[in-house]
Amino acid sequence: QVQLQESGPGLAKPSEALSLTCSVSGASISSSRYYWGWIRQPPGKGLEWIGNIYYSGNTHYSPSLRSRVIISIDTSRNQFFLKLSSVTAADTAVYYCARLLWSGFSPRFDYWGQGALVTVSS
Amino acid sequence: DIQLTQSPSSLSASVGDRVTITCQASHDITNFLNWYQQKPGKAPKVLIYDAFNLEAGVPSRFSGSGSGTDFTFTISSLQPEDFATYYCQQYDNFPYTFGQGTKLEIK
Fold first, then answer.
1. Are A47 and B34 within 8 A, CB to CB?
2. d(Cα B7, Cα A14) in Å, to the nearest integer?
């Protein structure tokens, strides 16, 4: 059974960085069949795609966040990571990690973590 | 970026009703569209991919259609567990984008 679990601080200070880890079980993050993604949702609002990463390290980022975001991967630990720098209150959101079906599939996010609320506040 | 506009933003309906949500893309995305269901406090769940293919395990009362710029998501007979927010999402081009969501409420 595939499971994803976000972890990291629930509070970030303005102008500092937000860092989250997504731990994957039940699937190999090294598989060429998947990308691994981050999506966020501000309280009471809709979904926003942040970016994806492949086992090779290849990434795609949202243009609106590209200057502040880094997504990385550690295949030895079956984890991938999100770092968002220079955060403001507008970055307060539930952050989801998700598996993106890719090679041989029609791309879609088929497994999601439960979400991690990160609040930006001093 | 490809913008997705869902209509309506909210909808009240009763158990047993037939419900339709539309999603309009700002550019031709062929059929590269997914539909997700999200319940309060939960992660989204994919229901439809490629505009009309039903994800495994999803009840057949859910369906999708459309191509190009205009897409439709239908629930043929609403069940109590279907009251949720629904999102369309395109994967024709990066950046992936979502519609703003349609909140389906009990009448």
1. no
2. 35
**How far apart are the CA of A108 and the nearest CA of chain B, in angstroms?**
7
Q: pLDDT at position B107, please?
A: 86
Q: How far is B77 from chain A (nearest CA, A)?
A: 24
Cβ-Cβ contacts under 8 Å, A113 against chain B: 43
Each residue's pLDDT tens digit, B24-46: 999 999 999 999 999 999 999 99
For residue B8, say if its preceding peptide bond is cis, omega within 30 degrees of 0: yes
**N-terminal to C-terminal alpha carbon distance within chain B:** 36
**Hey, which bits of A1-122 come out as E strands?**
3-7, 11-12, 18-25, 34-41, 48-54, 59-61, 69-74, 79-84, 93-101, 108-112, 116-120
CB A100 within 8 A of CB A111: no
